[in-house]
Amino acid sequence: MEGSTVPLSEEEQRQFEQLERALAAEDPKFVSAMRGTNVRLYYKRRAVLAGVGFVLGIVVLMTGAIIPNTIIGVIGFVMMVACLYIAALSMKRISNAGDADDVPPPPPPTKRHRTKHDSSGSFMERMEDRWRRRRDEDL
User: pTM of this prediction?
Assistant: First the structure.
């Protein structure tokens, strides 16, 4: 259920607003600091730094190749992979933050009977369906 959101009921929304007002009255400095933070800007900066780290990893990898030192080349490769992973996560979070701000959450998925040619659903669900069909055919 990662990534799915459930809208608050009216009572929960009212309680949430009361908590926000109480926090604003208790610590206005904290509230103003939190309003000033931009999640998209943080992840964008992180993605750019990961890109710089990736380029630096290429330089280290090439240095390890020019100077015949395998350890330096491996360190450069690991730097490249790590920076690529960080950049991918940051870009995913940027897109999720944009989706949460601009578009209302999608309705919760409903269970339905799927046909053989139905292409909707996650990759893992399709793989599980294929596995079940193959297992049933073998029996």
Answer: 0.47
